[in-house]
Amino acid sequence: MKRVHIIVEGQTEVRVFYSILVPYIQSKVENVYIEITPIKHSAGGIVKYSKLLPELRNHLADKEKIVTTFFDYYGLLEKHNFPKYKEAKIDQTNSKVGVVLMEDGLKDDLASQGISTKNFIPYIQLHEFEALLFSSDEGFEFQYDNPRVLRDLKAISPRYQTPEDINDSPVTAPSKRIIGILEKQGEKYEKVIDGDAISIMVGIEAMMEKCPRFKAWVETLILKILA
């Protein structure tokens, strides 16, 4: 049986991916066990690379296990000291270039320390998990009743080529937009509960159709399991 370990930022991603990603992969691949855990030493969100490194090293020491990540590009800051941060986010401003630089940086840094990366698939989501929720209006329509909330949420995605292009400033990242729209109407975004419910209604197929990087990650993971 193939084994996969996915390291994510928090409980929202754990719950959502057990709801939609694991069943999807298991529908494509037989005899695969998938475990999803939040980063150790985190209260939700990314941690310094120095804290993540031992976790990656321990998982990758198991040569039979496929290890991958799902981190938000938006949340990676200079203080986290991730490899290639400067090249990705300071020396240039194209996030689609930057995210690849940081993914490659993770793999290169591990390899430079003698850690096998043969079964490692680094993945960083543009710009964060909540981008996936904008792949379809069905999730918002299911979860929220307020017509003003729905109007404002539905108005966001058409402005961008893909949901992954919804930008990553502290004010306009996908989650910040959801929070702001709900708070304006006296409501609250319950990240774990709402994120899971909306994701289930949107469905992983719609997410993969609208979010090319996310689709490539899922397909790469499946191909790795099948190899």
Automatic annotation (TrEMBL):
UniProt-recorded name of the protein: DUF4276 family protein
Domain of life (superkingdom): Bacteria
Record-linked InterPro entries: DUF4276
